[in-house]
Amino acid sequence: MTTxxxxxPPAGWSRVPLRELCASIQAGPHQRAEDKGRTxxxxxxxxxxxxxxxxxxxxxxxxxxxPAIPVDRARTLAKYELAEGDILLTRTxxxxxxxxxxxxxxxxLFHPNLVRLRLHEARRVPAVYLAAYLSATAAxxxxxxxxxxxxxxxxxxxxxxxxPVLLPPAAEQAAIGATLAAxxxxxxxxxxxxxxxxxxxxxxxxALMNGVLTVEP
Length: 217
Description:
This protein is α+β, with helices and mostly antiparallel strands.
């Protein structure tokens, strides 16, 4: 597979390092002992975990399973709040999984093993295009070659900023991003259906096994 820095772009395309597209590339805040133990159900500002990045979207569990930062502490972490159009990417462990932040998770905080990409408004690269690009095979291979061999794979912000991004003309960026984002939305809908079905199955099994409900033979 040709990596982004080896690929010869078609006419009208350009190649720029990721850092030039971003207003900031920010790792999540360090967690203190007092930040832990609280969930969204208890109140506070919810926290996105690396495991929540699925299908290029953020897919969290129920409120009782989503960790949260106490309100007073969260006020000091305002610069780490997520906004619609940000992109999250795992930087340790299973490196390179990414997700587009939608309005549903605006204002949330993010785990220190995640990196937030916030795009330059002046560059006007659609976030849906960049999220799709980062999750494509060529970009993922580029990332893996730079984390291979480590006991715990880890990607530095400096190295991530060097990732070459291939940019077609603006109209193509928008069309590519919109097409793939629509498919990602469908994937997310199926994830939600599967999760609801698992919860229903568990509740039904309990009711059947303790005699609350019966099934005709």
